């Protein structure tokens, strides 16, 4: 199972545009970021059917390109879709999600405020993968995001962090960082923050898991190799929908990194964004 999960992450790297610099993977993997047609189009028109901009947020060691397939689907359905690669840092300048979450939240918040201003929108919807959902929650709770979000949808989110085992698995899969390296907090300041019961995670969840006034939903996978145990992706509170991918489709073997590529996950998100047009999210979604 462990080998399958590492392969799962490498498949994500290929799909997201990650290019290994050497065949033995001893040198770092870098990402080639490409434009997503229709993303960040400030000429897009909000409509009664889709009245809010949708903000897509990636996770740790990733870029906005992880959302390429889903973003194109959203745009084709008439949504106005926006997103950036946030949190670039240090020796891995192309990948995002590496700076402290407090800093990433400021960057994301500034971008969202720009989107809202240019689109003349009073609220937005957020779809976040992994750390992306945590960044959004911090912005809503501790910065200037209160009241600006209608829906927040988490895909394998790290609401409660992960055990150190999760970071060991991530480091082993990516070969980018070593979780036991004493300098990991310098190479990637975000890593210590995302460990379960870290000072940051305790602060994030002070007063409860959820954000008042926001409709929140999460989808987790039992094959998560980064958020360990996978139950840490779920929230406890009112106005929350928690779903496990394998309860929707037992044939879905997605791990943490490939969740944004899953057709079943895509249908789940569509249903959350617009319940009035919901269709079953199940194994038929794979066809």
Automatic annotation (TrEMBL):
GO molecular function: lipase activity
Gene Ontology BP annotations: lipid catabolic process
Superkingdom, taxonomy of origin: Eukaryota
InterPro entries in UniProt: AB_hydrolase_fold, Lipase_EstA/Esterase_EstB
Pfam families in UniProt: Lipase_2
Protein name: Putative secreted lipase
Protein species of origin: Lobosporangium transversale
Lineage of the organism: Eukaryota, Fungi, Fungi incertae sedis, Mucoromycota, Mortierellomycotina
């Amino acid at each position: 199972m462990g080998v399958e999960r590492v392969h799962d992450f490498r498949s994500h790297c290929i799909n997201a545009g990650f290019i290994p610099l050497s065949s033995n993977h001893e040198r770092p993997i870098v990402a080639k970021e490409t434009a997503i047609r229709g993303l960040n189009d400030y000429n897009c028109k909000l409509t009664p059917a889709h009245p809010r901009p949708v903000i897509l947020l990636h996770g740790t060691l990733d870029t906005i390109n992880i959302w390429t397939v889903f973003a194109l689907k959203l745009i084709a359905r008439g949504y106005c879709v926006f997103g950036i690669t946030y949190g670039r840092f240090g020796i891995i300048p192309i990948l995002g999600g590496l700076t402290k979450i407090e800093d990433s939240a400021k960057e994301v918040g500034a971008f969202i405020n720009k989107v809202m201003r240019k689109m003349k929108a009073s609220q937005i919807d957020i779809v976040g993968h992994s750390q992306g959902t945590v960044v959004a929650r911090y912005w809503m709770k501790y910065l200037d995001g209160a009241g600006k979000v209608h829906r927040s949808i988490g895909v394998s989110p790290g609401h409660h962090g992960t055990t150190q085992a999760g970071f060991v698995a991530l480091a082993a899969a990516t070969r980018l960082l070593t979780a036991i390296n004493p300098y990991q907090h310098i190479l990637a300041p975000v890593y210590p923050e995302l460990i379960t019961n870290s000072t940051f995670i305790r602060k994030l969840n002070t007063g409860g898991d959820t954000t008042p006034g926001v409709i929140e939903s999460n989808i987790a996978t039992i094959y998560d190799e980064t958020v360990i145990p996978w139950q840490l992706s779920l929230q406890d509170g009112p106005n929350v929908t928690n779903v496990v991918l394998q309860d929707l489709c037992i044939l879905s073997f997605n791990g943490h990194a490939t969740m944004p590529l899953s057709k079943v996950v895509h249908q789940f998100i569509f249903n959350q964004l617009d319940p009035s047009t919901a269709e079953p999210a199940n194994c038929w979604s794979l066809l």
